[in-house]
Specification:
By secondary structure, this protein is an alpha/beta fold. It contains 8 helices and 12 strands. Strands 1, 2, 3, 4, 5, 6, 7, 8, 9, 10, 11 and 12 form a 12-stranded mixed beta sheet that branches. α1 runs parallel beside α2 and α6 crosses α8. The protein is globular, with a radius of gyration of 17 Å.
Length: 244
């Protein structure tokens, strides 16, 4: 049995100090959560399985990823580090796509009538929607179906999908289980559930109901509501095979 992973996420923006971790709700109303290098060091010491570093304003600001902050972060961690944001050229995509993580941000779209070619998913309350890929920090809808796009990048050689539901981001209401489960059942590559973790029980739901391979969280770790160790111990007691 493959073990499940706990992954803290650092959403980073460029400021006068060079870089700042922020956390918002549905990609807006950002608040300061600390220094990326110090947080990365903390999570490494607590036993995180991986770390995700997302330069969330690089694409919108049309600049490259803040390499200097990434380098300082990488110096403090000895676990896999995934980086996103500011990847704007076909050449850059070609160079990093094979055997790496592809991040997909999506949002529920309830216009089913005009989108019968999309993957329609039944939600918790019985209503139906399809999930639209959004870019530039959720500012721009693309018209792409998230499930179909995930299948496409899998065929292109992506090794994993980081799936973030904009509808759940920062809400602490739990992960978007319908779309997480759909991708997990449709694709052969691992799925990282992202967006909405409010407690460690939500992580359990992501693994059992959402069938995710990894659970990403930000607020509950940044503001020290839980440690990585507490999350792992809880999941282990619930019977989830967790990396130690």
């Amino acid at each position: 049995m493959l073990t499940k992973r706990i992954i803290p996420c650092l959403d980073v923006t460029l400021d006068r100090k060079g870089g700042c971790v922020v956390k918002g709700v549905e990609f807006v109303h950002l608040r300061d959560a600390g220094d990326p290098v110090e947080l990365a060091k903390r999570y490494n010491e607590q036993g995180a399985d991986e770390l995700v570093f997302l330069d969330i304003t690089a694409s919108h600001e049309r600049r490259g990823t803040m390499i200097d902050v990434i380098e300082r972060t990488a110096d403090e961690v000895f676990i896999p580090l995934t980086v996103g944001g500011g990847i704007a050229s076909t050449e850059a995509i070609r160079n990093i796509l094979r055997a790496v993580v592809t991040a997909i941000d999506c949002k529920r779209n309830f216009n089913i009538k005009d989108n019968k070619d999309k993957t329609i998913i039944e939600l918790e309350d019985g209503t139906k929607a399809w999930y639209e890929v959004v870019i530039y920090g959720g500012r721009t809808p693309t018209g792409l179906d998230a499930v179909q796009w995930a299948q496409k990048v899998e065929t292109l050689g992506s090794g994993e999908i980081l799936l973030t539901s904009m509808d759940r981001d920062g809400t602490k209401d739990g992960y978007d289980l319908p779309v997480t489960r759909t991708l997990s059942e449709t694709l052969d590559i691992p799925i990282i559930a992202s967006g909405g973790a409010g407690n460690i029980e939500h992580m359990y739901d992501a693994f059992t109901e959402g069938k995710a391979d990894a659970a990403l969280a930000a607020s509950i770790f940044h503001f020290e509501e839980y440690t990585i160790g507490e999350a792992k111990e809880y999941l282990k007691k619930k019977g989830v095979a967790i990396r130690v």
